[in-house]
Amino acid sequence: MIQQFDYPLHVICADGAIVGESPVWSQREQALYWVDILKPALYRFDPASGQRQSWVAPASIGSISLAKNGKIVAALRTGFHWFDPASACWTLIAHPEPHISHNRLNDGKTGPDGAFWAGTMDDRADKQACASLYRLAPDGSISAHGNELVVSNGLAWSPDGRTMYHSDSRRAVIYRYDFDVANGTLGPREVFVQMQPEWGRPDGGAVDVDGCYLSCGITAGRINKFSPQGELLGFIPLPVSRPTMCAFGGADLKTMYVTSLTENMKPDELAREPLAGALFAIDMPVAGTPVAEFGI
User: Fold this and answer.
1) Is the dihedral of CA 127, 171, 35, 5 positive or negative?
2) Is 264 marked within a binding site?
3) Residue 203: active-site member
4) Domain locations in the chain?
5) Are 150 and 175 in contact (CB under 8 A)?
6) What's the pLDDT tens digit per position in 260-294?
7) Is the pTM of this model over 0.85?
8) Which residues bind a divalent metal cation (predicted)?
9) Is 106 annotated as a binding residue?
């Protein structure tokens, strides 16, 4: 039986992001970072003090990862960049698709191999299967690991690091791959979940310590929880219809932060959803799997 999980939910920021995305928890700082892709901007929130900071990005910013050197790796429309919060400087690392002007980098996350994995998406209204998944190694080299995607999304890893999850939002499918941590390579792509319309399209995802994959069901206003075998166990209802990504944080990793968007919502939809674009925090009964930092 599919359960509805009614966990305590809190509004952290109700500014109404255009496309809120990529929440990333810093264990070292005990703070949360996230982005608004189209503003474009990077944000930091300190739960202890309530203090917020923001930095303007030089281009659309699809996702970020914390790095072991104290900086941030960002997936911008113009390629992978370093961002130094101390100096507020952006520095290009490399661009994986300079020849495809209508694509931009989208969802990304550092894997247990210490590399930043991020995929692209076709940014045109009439989206085509011209996107790919890339691996940015700590030495700055880039390798492609799958193409013919429409909207790359949903990256996350199992607690033991041996399984990688990845989705194509436009095709409404979540994939799984065997993952070689030592070499940062993937096994054959397998269908993990074929989404049903009432579950929404699969956007950003995260994994808990039990190995369950939690996926934002954009358009359905929920977070879907799948077992390691791909069975829908239940869902967390949300006060917004377009959640974009979830990530575990807090000192015990039992707070799940969720971003959302307002992009392309009609006036009547916005009137019905005053919290559209907000950042939420949900008190979870099970902790999340820690996300690695970029570097070796």
Assistant:
1) positive
2) no
3) yes
4) 3-283
5) no
6) 999 999 999 999 999 999 999 999 999 999 999 99
7) yes
8) 21, 153, 203
9) yes
Tokens of 70: 């104290």
What are the structure tokens assigned to 100, written together?
């495809």
Q: Which CATH number fits domain 3-283: 3.40.50.1370, 3.40.50.920, 2.60.40.10, 2.120.10.30?
A: 2.120.10.30
DSSP secondary structure string for all residues of 159-196? TTS-EEEEEETTTTEEEEEEEETTTTEE---EEEEE--
Going by DSSP bridges, is the β-strand pair 52-56/41-45 parallel, antiparallel, or unpaired? Answer: antiparallel
CA distance 230 to 213: 8
Task: Find out whether 46 is annotated in a ligand binding site.
Answer: no
Identify the three-state secondary structure at position 198: helix
pLDDT of residue 296 exceeding 90, the answer is no
Element (H, E) at 145: none
Which among 36, 113, 168, 203 is annotated as catalytic? 203
Q: Kindly report, residue by residue over 8-61, the tens digit of the pLDDT.
A: 999 999 999 999 999 999 999 999 999 999 999 999 999 999 999 999 999 999
Q: Is 21 part of any known ligand binding site?
A: yes
Amino acid (one-letter) located at 98: P
User: Would strands 3-4 and 190-194 be described as parallel, antiparallel, or unpaired?
Assistant: unpaired
- The reply to whether 153 sits in an annotated binding site is yes
Residue 194 structure tokens: 């074929």
Length of the chain: 296
